[in-house]
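Would you kindly consider the sequence and fold I have copied below?
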Amino acid sequence: MTLLKEQMKKFNDKKAVIGIIGLGYVGLPLALEYLTEGYTVIGFDIDQNKIDSLKKGESYIEHIDVSKIKASYDKGTFLPTTDFSKAHETDALILCVPTPLNDHREPDLSYVIGSLEAVLPYLKKGQVLSLESTTYPGTTEEELKPRIEKTGLCYW
């Protein structure tokens, strides 16, 4: 079986591990959806306070009930962490980091680039990477692709 078919089977069988980078207003609800669908999720954030809150079952975002996240954490299907080396354990990584506008009303890509740089050493062949941050068309092609290809991995 080819690597692509193996990966597709893992996703179809819900055995794929999903990595969510950025556990804010986009990332945390997305993590909850994947957990609800039966996937294992590793949630990455640079804020240790957020990680500690999630492990305790506390919500830092209004209207987010973390009881399911806490139950998934207790069950071992949700691992919130600041350890970006765990990106190697995922089959897909979804970047959900802020892109605030600068003085020229252009998205500040420093969080996107910083997040990618944090996981770049841990990317592996066959892994899916998706950018969910709000930015201009072409960001993935212009900013992420060259950095990924420097590691020797291909970009589709």
Notes: The radius of gyration is 16 Å.
